[in-house]
Design brief:
This protein is an alpha/beta fold. It has 11 helices and 14 strands.
């Protein structure tokens, strides 16, 4: 019998997993991250503490093996970093799997501030560095929370960069969380790439923007150059009409010269043969693997971001039905800081919204008009099953962080998950 027989009988998602991880090498830091995560999880499992794995930020898709160019998304990691702070306040230990250089818990209050961090400081009379009095109260509050998390070792931060890094890290940490059983929570807030360039089609070196080095380059390339003759199709012949072009020839029969390309050429007529054509494959969907094999007893929360209000709940419900996990948090790009919708199996959709009285005042001062259309629909936890109209919201961000409402609701959901598992397992105690 062939040695490949077992692969043909394995579930499709398992076959995809094996193929992907066997052909996409792990990040160099994975062994160190595994060791750190294992020690962290063991510590908090012994303390009977719940552990949440939060994924945060976007994933890059490299176009070269020695990466200069890559595809990215807009995610700064705001949702994940903010959620981590509220999970820590709720008593969880947090593994923060984040995009390198994205927002981090606690330092997020300053690292991406509209003010330079140095504006929060000034030089004291004795030459010391002192916090600006106007910001001292908030800085002290944030510092104390950060120091407490470090002292109790309740926050472990693990970075990633590429989509492949992310998936290797996610699989490894999720599998380490198995001993936690239902006390493990996976909160998948990262903006994960849907497409990638397989290694065998990836350029080794920087993709060139001109043909100056064509005779020197060797090896595979992400770029496919389309020859001009492929663009100029031969016209059908009807009795040998004199106006017909043959194989791209001009009226005198000569082949047209290839247009030159210059990075500073402002002409919109860029030859198609000089365009960069990137051939992307879909990233396998590993949420089913997560549910069935990587962390089968943990509670799994995924996020669904859409721009079309008419698709949001439908896509969230589709994801839940397809992967059979526990909760999808849906949000719209235009209102993601104002509302989300919880979509869970066997439960009514639940909209969570920033209360009207915590929305910022209007520039005109007509505060009574802010959110007036939603007054009967939103009290921060219920209301209509329709998304908010962005036109009813004030400019800027809300006065309160919506994560302060999301995390208690997720914690409540997780508690029910733990209680249900406890009942099935014959009354083992639930942790906090």
């Amino acid at each position: 019998m062939s040695s490949h027989t077992t692969n043909t009988t394995a579930p499709l998602h398992q076959v995809d997993e094996n193929a992907y991880f066997n052909s996409n090498p792990p990040p160099k830091a994975l062994p160190q991250h595994i060791a750190a995560a294992e020690s962290f999880i063991n510590q908090h499992a012994a303390a009977n503490r719940r552990v949440v794995l939060i994924t945060s930020g976007g994933t890059t898709v490299p176009l070269e093996k020695q990466t200069v160019r890559f595809i990215d998304n807009f995610s700064a990691g705001t949702r994940g970093a903010t959620s981590a702070e509220y999970f820590l306040e709720a008593g969880y230990a947090v593994i923060f799997l984040h995009r390198q250089f994205s927002l981090l818990p606690y330092s997020r209050h300053y690292s991406h501030s509209t003010d330079c961090f140095l504006d929060f400081l000034y030089e004291g009379a004795d030459g010391s560095v002192v916090a600006n009095p106007a910001h001292q109260e908030k800085m002290m509050r944030v510092l104390r929370k950060y120091t407490d998390a470090k002292r109790r070792n309740t926050l472990l931060m693990l970075p990633f960069v590429t989509i492949t890094d992310y998936l290797h890290e996610l699989r490894a940490v999720a599998q380490l969380m198995r001993p936690l059983g239902p006390n493990g929570l996976l909160y998948l807030a990262a903006a994960v790439s849907d497409f990638f360039v397989p290694p065998e089609r990836m350029a080794e070196h920087k993709i060139q923007s001109t043909d100056a080095t064509d005779k020197l380059r060797q090896g595979p390339t992400t770029m496919r150059q389309e020859k001009r003759e492929q663009q100029q199709q031969q016209q059908p012949s009807e009795g040998g009409g004199g106006n017909q072009k043959q194989n791209g020839s001009g009226k005198d029969g000569a082949q047209p010269e290839e247009e030159t390309f210059d990075n500073f050429d402002s002409s919109p007529a860029v030859p198609r043969s000089k365009r960069l054509i990137v051939d992307l494959d879909p990233v396998p969907k590993f949420l089913k693997n997560l549910v069935d094999g990587w962390a089968p007893e943990g509670m799994i929360v995924s996020f669904k971001l859409e721009t079309d209000p008419g698709l949001l709940v439908h896509k969230a419900r589709y994801s839940l039905d397809r992967y059979q996990h526990h909760l999808v948090v849906g949000n719209l790009l235009s209102t993601r800081k104002w509302e989300v919708v919880f979509v869970g199996a066997g439960r009514d959709d639940r909209w969570i919204r920033v209360p009207i009285n915590r929305r910022k005042k209007t520039i005109s001062g007509a505060e009574e008009l802010v959110g007036a259309a939603e007054r009967d629909r939103s009290t921060g936890g219920g209301g209509s099953n329709r998304p908010l109209d962005p036109a009813t919201l004030p400019e800027g961000e809300p006065e309160m962080e919506i994560e302060s409402l999301i995390i208690p609701a997720v914690e409540e959901w997780h508690s029910k998950h733990v209680e249900s598992a406890t009942t099935r397992n014959g009354g083992a105690s639930a942790s906090r």
